[in-house]
Specification:
The complex is a heterotrimer. By secondary structure, chain A is α/β, with parallel strands linked by helices. Chain A contains 14 helices and 9 strands. In chain A, 50% of the residues are buried. Chain B is an alpha/beta fold. The chains are: A alpha/beta, B alpha/beta, C alpha/beta.
Chain lengths: 423, 424, 285
């Protein structure tokens, strides 16, 4: 069947959305952005098509236990992908050891690396038997945290030290991320199917999904790196228009859209057709954006995903005076020194970020009903909390839309533009 | 300036500016008196009536910006203790002085015999001349132009200004130059000003054509150069504007678009009005962001900082001092926000613009304060959404090309989408 | 009479430990030195581990003084704590006796310290609370560019037309890098641009101090040849017409400057106080 693709090359993540002839979403894919844009776009696209074929599998199955069965198959598939990347990572780390480890440590090093990778694989197998848990979508994060943990247990400060292991890992994970790997549906679905015991109905459905032709007739790109996507100019759209149209497709009643991404914040007004009528963006300073939170996380020695939930535990939001990264870091240390609670300071920081976004919203024409919040930061509960509060304080009662797929808003808009051109 | 521009007016301008800087460099030998003053509210006809040569520090700063020298000059001034928040024109000028005071053409600038400050709404100018006074230890005089808070020049404002001209400014000029005030000479200069102003307005209003034969912002900052600096009220100025007008009218008659650094622009797609000064350090890159998208600026407010002529004001030789007062009070920086909103809204309507852009520069509060209100009010009045970017005059650190390009591309695509929406 | 002292330098990115035998004011011998990156592990555990490793490598029976420096939380076996600027000054002087200033480039912050010939601190300045002149920042950039830590320096040296990134703020600088990638600027030129911006900050820091001799670069980035090159060029450019540019020196063990300095300070204090007792003794089986 014919389909169209939208790619959103953001500064932090790259997203792909695939639509069928009726503009229904067939699949979504995401990967972490890197400076190799072609690769980032290709990986997101591959993930999108895998997701689409799983959708086809689901369509084929009419039984009640479909959802659970397909979800197991999906998890098995993701595991196969992880194991493949892990094998590649191991191979690279062994080569690196051969090249750079001191001779008297080479064999100990090899043994450590093999043992760590073996244990990660075992953990993955065990994880598969447990109910699903929330974790990062990216191999780097999944493998990274397991690697650090196991390396710490195995490291021998006098020989194969933690530091040396981390050094080798750092070098090789970058290579794994920056080379194309065969991770598509055909490559791993057979192994995944075997893993879930090859149930007959499911096998037929998979057979069907593999055989279906998914031919993208048109692709439109958007986002930060759009100018360097390998498409001609007519296949490039500004992310403003894509976010407006994407939000409109998800929530036809929306009139105001706020997108907070890694490097920029966009306040967009759209009409009843999803056409952008006005917009404003933050300027060079990305203090109210995702990267800022990244630096705060570094400063507090926390993971980025831990900030929001921690801030949500606050009982008493501290007023933060500076939204500039430079000064917020200083203010953070100062307040910690004064004995303020981490969660209260974090709640204040989230509010400060949203206050910046509020001024952009005001600049673009305010907040009308319905209001849609999209972008990476929309996943952060403390940011959502602050948005709710501040919109209420400034504009009164407003319907707030947040889609679990909000990170795909820009890619969805790009795909909708692609479908219009293809039509 | 770009090689693509081979018009006679360009060559004329180059020559007259080069001659002026040579004369300035020789001033210490020839004994010609030198008066430093600023573009808004400059009293060039009066200065020239004393046979003195004007020097305009902002122009030197913006020229340094265009020649990519301003970054180092600013760093030099910051090392000398001027904070990051000080206007970058000032820091660029201070840095230039500390680095040998070579003008934009590489020739040394003479010391001032007088600092003449026309105060037209910019407090920084006052501080700037205070710094120069420290540096040069020379006489200063201030001509205080009342802010047009209610949007009109009251009679008592006018008489207050006339008194200052007679009792302070003229005596200071007499003392600094050793020459007597000569009203006939001033009248003669003012008559020349009015001639050049007529031609300039014809050039500015050529932007009403479709396609516009001029770029009313990037191109026009060159066009207003002579009249905003040392050449208002001179024969050279008259000749320049006569030549320019003929060129522009010919382009209009042939249905040609404006000339850009990359050659003539064909196929005008977007007509814009721009508020705020340009960024000088990345001037060509900034312009290219427009010309690549076939966007033409049809009118701008910045090209009125040294005088607003397109609503009818002309220098009047029959009222020599009064007309100087009228001119100063009408400079763009001296106008209140409602007057600025009026001006932009009128431009959008009269020049049939598809959109408007505000460039908010970090350095200049006279310009930037109130711009968000201007944005909202103009949107309300015209029904056209505005674009808003932030940059700076001559500090390269505050111009982020990728961000601004992204913003402009999105804005142009929005105009396209709105057009399609209207026809759908 | 020699004494054995240990210096523990717990930074925000890594833990460094040096065990020394000292017998004078700023003299001594390094018996062992060990380090480990923290990488979100519990700092106290990392300190334990690195300390153990250093002690076993040094092969000493007893340690008279255990000195901490840096972020140094309270470690139960520590005898005393010294300020980072003091220990880095001492350690730098130990590694290069010509040094009269230290530039300590840390994971989150950078600090410049001026000192005299005996390692006494005369003055110090820190980066203005921003991560843009730090190791963490460089690591983020390198990850985005797909370059591993030890490739950065060499790539930076291969630059042809570097473009500077913002030296005002880390977030801005990251935006600049992403924009440069979008514009097709080479990895080499981007890295050199980042190095130059960092060097700009460091030059400003160093020039705001008065000192008479070379500046010693300590900390984790001291081995980054690209950064050192940019720093030397930056200082040469800012040299006055009459004054020679500031000289920059470093040492293969520069990352241990703080730990070595702490061990030296500890040994000195132990002698000065004439303390009895032993801070730490190997468990004799």
């Amino acid at each position: 069947m014919s389909c169209v693709v939208g790619i959103d090359l953001g500064s932090t993540t790259t997203k792909a959305v695939i639509l069928d002839e009726n503009c229904e979403v067939l699949g979504r894919g995401i990967t972490n952005s890197r400076s190799n844009y072609d690769l980032a776009a290709a990986v997101a696209r591959t993930e999108g098509f895998i997701n689409a074929r799983f959708g086809l599998v689901e369509q084929q199955l009419q039984a009640t236990e479909t959802a659970a069965m397909v979800s197991r198959l999906r998890r098995a598939f993701v595991m196969e992908q992880i194991l493949q990347q892990l094998r590649r990572l191991e191979q690279l780390m062994l080569e690196e050891t051969e090249r750079s480890a001191p001779d008297h440590l080479k064999s100990a090093f090899r043994a450590s690396i093999e043992e760590i990778c073996r244990r990660i694989a075992v953990e993955e197998e065990q994880r598969f038997k447990q109910p699903p848990m929330l974790r990062s979508d990216f191999f780097r994060d999944a493998a990274g945290s397991a690697f650090m943990r196991i390396a710490e247990q195995l490291a021998d400060p006098a020989g194969v030290s933690f530091d040396r292991l981390v050094g080798v890992y750092d070098k090789c994970i970058i290579r794994v991320e920056n080379e194309p790997l065969d991770l598509d549906f055909r490559d791993h679905i057979g192994d995944a199917l075997r893993r879930v015991g090859n149930p007959p109905g499911l096998a037929d459905a998979v057979e069907y999904a593999v055989a279906r032709d998914l031919e993208p007739s048109y692709t439109v790109g958007t986002g930060y790196g759009r100018a360097r996507l390998p498409f001609p100019k007519e296949q490039i759209r500004s992310e403003i228009l894509c976010h407006g149209l994407g939000a409109h497709a998800m929530f036809p009643g929306t009139r105001t859209v706020l997108d907070i991404g890694g490097q920029d914040t966009k306040a967009i007004q759209v009409d009843e057709q999803g056409i952008v009528t006005n917009f404003q963006m933050n300027d060079r300073c990305a203090a109210g954006c995702g990267r800022y939170l990244g630096y705060i996380a570094d400063e507090m020695n926390l993971g980025l995903h831990e900030l929001g939930p921690l801030a949500e535990q606050s009982k008493r939001c501290v007023k933060i005076n500076s939204t500039c990264t430079v000064f917020a870091g200083a203010e953070l240390r100062e307040r910690l020194g004064l004995g303020e609670k981490r969660e209260d300071i974090l709640a204040g920081l989230h509010r400060a970020i949203v206050i910046r976004a509020m001024s952009l919203l005001a600049r673009s024409g305010g907040v009308s009903d319905e209001f849609t919040f999209t972008g990476g930061v929309a996943k952060n509960p403390a940011a959502v909390h602050a948005i709710r509060d501040l919109v209420g304080e400034n504009y009164g009662e407003r319907t707030l839309n947040i889609s679990p797929d909000s990170i795909y808003t820009g890619a969805l808009g790009a795909a909708l533009f692609a479908s219009r051109i293809a039509a | 300036m770009a090689e693509a521009l081979k018009d006679r007016s360009m060559l004329l301008q180059k020559e007259m500016i080069a001659r002026h800087f040579e004369r300035l460099a020789r001033a210490p030998e020839t004994g010609e008196p030198v008066v430093y003053t600023f573009v808004p509210g400059n009293l060039t006809e009066l200065i020239r009536s004393f046979d003195a040569l004007p020097v305009l520090p902002e122009i030197n700063a913006l020229q340094s910006g265009m020649r990519k020298l301003s970054g180092d000059y600013i760093a030099e001034a910051e090392r000398a203790g001027h904070s990051e928040d000080v206007c970058t024109y000032v820091k660029c000028d201070i840095g230039m002085m500390r680095s040998g005071n070579l003008g934009p053409g590489g020739l040394k600038l003479p010391k001032p015999d007088l600092l003449l400050l026309s105060y037209t709404g910019c407090y920084t100018f006052m501080k700037w001349f205070e710094l120069l006074r420290e540096e040069y230890d020379c006489p200063t005089v201030m001509f205080h132009v009342p802010y047009q808070g209610d949007g009109v020049l009251e009679p008592e404002h006018r008489s207050y200004m006339l008194r200052q001209l007679r009792e302070q400014v003229i005596p200071a000029l007499e003392k600094a130059t050793g020459r007597k005030y000569d009203e006939d000479k001033l009248r003669h200069n003012l008559a020349l000003s009015a001639q050049a102003e007529d031609d300039l307005v014809a050039v500015l209003q050529a932007g009403k054509n479709r396609p516009s034969p001029i770029d009313g912002y990037f191109g026009t900052v060159y066009y207003v150069g002579p009249i905003f600096s040392a050449f208002r009220g001179t024969e050279e100025g008259v000749e320049y504007y006569r030549t320019l007008r003929a060129e522009v009218e010919e382009r209009a008659a042939l249905g040609l678009g404006p000339i850009t650094p990359d050659g003539p622009l064909e196929g005008e797609r977007y007509r814009l009005v721009v508020e705020g000064p340009p960024n000088w350090t990345s001037f060509r890159d900034f312009w290219k962001m427009f010309s690549d998208e076939k966007a033409v600026v049809v009118a701008s407010t910045y090209t009125k900082v040294g005088g607003t002529y397109d609503f009818g004001f002309r220098h009047d030789p029959d009222d020599p001092l009064g007309t100087l007062a009228d001119y100063c009070s009408g400079c763009y920086t001296n106008l209140n926000l409602p007057s600025r909103i009026d001006m932009i809204s009128r431009y959008i309507e009269e020049y049939q613009a598809d959109g408007f852009l505000i460039n908010s520069v970090k350095s200049c509060n006279s310009f930037s304060a109130g711009q968000l209100m201007i944005l909202r009010e103009v949107e309300k009045r015209t029904g056209i959404p505005g674009a808003f970017i932030e940059s700076d005059l001559v500090d390269p650190r505050y111009f982020s090309a990728a961000n601004i390009k992204n913003r402009l591309e999105s804005y142009f695509q929005m105009i396209d989408a709105r057009r399609l929406g209207k026809t759908a | 009479m020699t004494h054995i002292s240990a210096g523990i330098d717990a930074g925000s990115g890594a833990v460094k430990v040096a065990i020394m035998s000292t017998d004078g004011d700023i003299d001594g011998t390094v018996l062992s030195q060990e380090s480990a990156r923290i990488r979100r592990r519990e700092v106290a555990k990392v300190v334990d581990e690195v300390f153990e490793a250093a002690v076993s490598a040094a092969d000493v029976g007893e340690i008279h003084y255990v000195a901490t420096t840096g972020e140094g939380a309270d470690f139960p076996f520590a005898t005393g704590h010294f300020y980072g600027m003091t220990t880095h000054a001492r350690g730098a002087l130990f590694l290069d006796p010509r040094a009269r200033a230290v530039l300590d480039v840390g994971a989150l912050h950078t600090r410049a310290v001026a000192m005299d010939a005996r390692g006494r601190v005369l003055d110090y300045k820190m980066t203005s609370q921003c991560a843009s002149g730090s190791g963490q920042f460089l690591e983020n950039i390198a990850r985005y560019l797909g370059v591993s830590h030890d490739e950065i320096g060499q790539l930076s040296l291969e630059a042809r037309q570097p473009e500077k990134v913002s030296s005002i703020c880390a977030v801005l600088a990251e935006t600049d890098v992403i924009n440069m990638v979008s514009r097709g600027i080479t990895t080499q030129d981007i890295l050199r641009g980042v190095h130059e911006s960092m060097a700009d900050r460091f030059v400003r820091l160093l020039r705001s101090l008065q000192f008479d001799g070379p500046a010693f670069v300590s900390g984790g980035l001291a081995s980054d040849v690209g950064l050192l090159g940019a720093l030397r060029d930056g200082l040469a450019k800012k040299a006055g017409k009459t004054s020679a540019p500031l000289e920059v020196v470093t040492h293969a063990d520069a990352i241990f400057a703080g730990a070595i300095g702490a061990a030296l300070c500890g040994g000195f204090r132990y002698r000065k106080l004439g303390q009895g007792g032993v801070a730490w003794a190997a468990a004799t089986a």
